[in-house]
Amino acid sequence: MAHARPTLPQTTPATAAPRPPTELTLEERLTLVNTAMTARLDEAAVAYEVNTAHIPTEPVDLADLITSPIDTGPAALPDLYPTPVAALLQRAHHRLLTDGWCKDVLVDENGARCMLGAIRAEAGGDRGLEADAVAVLWDVLRRQFGDDVASVPSVNDAFGSGRVPIRMVDLAAHFADARGL
Fold first, then answer.
1. Nearest alpha-carbon partner for 95 in 74, 126, 72, 73
2. How many helices (H) and strands (E) does the chain have?
């Protein structure tokens, strides 16, 4: 009978499982991207210099390139609307675009105007024409924002920029023209 050797338990040395790579922080990723982009831009600059080295160039006098703009004044306002109220609203819209828009006052220290201030300035003292234009604008504002609108100045002052109020004056000009006012 053959002797069987006793088997010893075979143990392999314990090796730690490889640790998953730790995720980079945002700063580390940005640094890597910045480094890669800087290298690419440097390579592109060298390639540009090499590719254009054979092209003869003459020095440029900046006085030939840089000129000051010619002051032509404000752009002319096209006569789009033949009716008085529509024309007044169109002029008020143009004034808001050229002189600026403001809130909380009719006219601010820089000459910018609110919707009502622009209409009043363009009406030239004609209170009846001014009232008709404000009535059309009021109608447009109620159609756009509902019957809860308190007044033209309240709508004007409700906005942080003039984008919507200026657009409302333009819309009122279109509306007045469509109504023949």
1. 74
2. 7, 0
Phi/psi at 58 (5° precision): -115, 150
Q: Are 142 and 175 in contact (CB under 8 A)?
A: no
Under 8 Å between Cβ of 168 and 137: yes
| pLDDT tens by residue, 119-135 | 999 998 889 999 999 99
Q: What is the identity of the amino acid at 165?
A: P
Do 176 and 81 contact (CB within 8 A), yes or no? Answer: yes
CA distance 120 to 134: 9
Cβ atoms of 85 and 129 within 8 Å: the answer is yes
**Backbone conformation region of residue 59, classed left if phi is above 0, alpha if psi is from -120 to 50, else beta:** beta
Q: Is 102 exposed, middle or buried (0-12, 13-18, 19+ CB in 10 A)?
A: buried
Q: How many CB atoms lie within 10 A of CB 174?
A: 16
The beta strands (E) that lie in 23-153 are given as: none
Whether this model's pTM surpasses 0.90: no
